[in-house]
Design the sequence.
């Protein structure tokens, strides 16, 4: 299942659907980095609102995505983590340390815009 | 079958006797109750009224050999007397006293016919014991129900999530936090963050006297989970004891944003949100 990646100016938005396989996650990781390079994006938003469970592989992949994208000089924000999912994640010790998070798409965009302003 | 019929017939005879002598047996029983200083939380009139109901229910249970009505009565009675401060030992005590009073009256009546007395007691004792059991269990079940209800009420009252500014929530925690309450708190907070789109949360623990390792870890998890929803947490009001606990268990304080008191916490939150509070004039 392919995750759609939309372009919004200097920002790419990838919206997870529920139940992504490990292969899907790996594919997304490569696709996002390729797109960042292609469009010279400055920010990436990964919207996980539709995810009702986050396992350690998904969590690690998200961290890897953020790191790889940072190497291209762009910032990643994970948005839409549901309260139940957040609770389960911290109990398993999956804290997404070092990765920016925001409540939803609107907040994520606001965060990136603020970052871009500060970087000027 | 014959034995059962005989037993039922004896019970009928005994029930008739108990009904005939109702007034004096009841009086004797109430006398024994005040002698042994039970039900001190109730007035004489109340004791008399309840004693009448209990006596009649007791005799009816003996007669019908069914105990549902008695059980319902016991729960009903318990519901009324528990808030008055009546204790378990008092309730069990008075039922046993009634059993004794009635037992003695049977000795008195059948003292000349030892064989018959034995047979009557064979019929009476199991039923009387079952009655005592039913009433005691009914009372205890009602107490447990009240305790559960109170626990639920305490849990509900004690974790309000309050919005004091746009995007700013305060969670004042008061009292004892057990793991269950801690979990409920976290769930409530996370839902509050999402509903109110909060960016900063101030968790005030001034009202928390002590915290053990489990709960401290839970607090850290709450902070981390809130971050996953894009909110920053400021913890305020740590007592010296709790500060000691956190340091001792090696909580990574770098992960926690703490400020001395609630006022300081709110001021920092306002700074984070870009508010600036200024006095316009002297308060009138």
Sequence:
């Amino acid at each position: 299942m392919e995750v759609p990646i939309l372009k919004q100016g200097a920002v790419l938005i990838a919206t997870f659907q529920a139940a992504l396989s490990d292969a899907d996650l790996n594919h997304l990781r490569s696709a996002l980095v390729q797109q960042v390079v292609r469009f010279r994006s400055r920010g990436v938003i990964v919207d996980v609102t539709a995810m009702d469970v986050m396992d350690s592989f998904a969590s690690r992949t998200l961290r890897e995505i953020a790191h790889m994208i940072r190497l291209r000089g762009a910032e990643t924000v994970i948005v839409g983590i549901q309260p139940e999912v957040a609770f389960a994640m911290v109990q398993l010790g999956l804290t997404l340390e070092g990765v920016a998070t925001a409540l939803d798409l609107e907040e994520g965009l606001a965060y990136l815009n603020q970052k871009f302003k500060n970087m000027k | 079958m014959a034995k059962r019929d005989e037993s039922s017939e004896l019970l009928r005879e005994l029930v008739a006797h108990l009904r005939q002598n109702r007034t004096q047996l009841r009086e004797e029983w109430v006398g024994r109750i005040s002698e042994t200083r039970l039900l001190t939380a109730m007035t004489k009139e109340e004791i008399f009224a309840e004693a009448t109901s209990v006596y009649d229910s007791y005799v009816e249970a003996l007669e019908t050999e069914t105990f549902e009505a008695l059980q319902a009565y016991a729960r009903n009675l318990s519901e009324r007397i528990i808030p008055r401060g009546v204790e378990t030992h008092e309730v069990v005590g008075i039922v046993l006293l009634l059993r004794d009073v009635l037992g003695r009256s049977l000795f008195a009546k059948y003292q000349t016919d030892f064989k018959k007395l034995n047979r009557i007691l064979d019929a009476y004792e199991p039923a009387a014991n079952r009655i005592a059991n039913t009433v005691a269990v009914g009372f205890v079940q009602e107490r447990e129900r009240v305790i559960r209800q109170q626990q639920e009420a305490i849990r509900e009252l004690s974790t309000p999530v309050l919005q004091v500014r746009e995007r700013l929530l305060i969670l004042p925690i008061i009292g004892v936090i057990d793991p269950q309450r801690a979990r409920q708190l976290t769930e409530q907070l996370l839902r509050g963050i999402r509903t109110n789109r909060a960016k900063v949360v101030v968790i005030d623990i001034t009202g928390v006297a002590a915290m053990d390792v489990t709960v401290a870890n839970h607090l850290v998890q709450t902070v981390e989970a809130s971050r996953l929803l894009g909110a920053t947490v400021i913890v305020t009001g740590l007592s010296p004891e709790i500060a000691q606990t956190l340091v001792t268990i090696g909580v990574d304080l770098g992960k926690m944003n703490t400020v001395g008191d609630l006022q300081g916490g709110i001021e920092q939150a306002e700074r984070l949100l870009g508010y600036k509070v200024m006095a316009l004039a002297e308060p009138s």
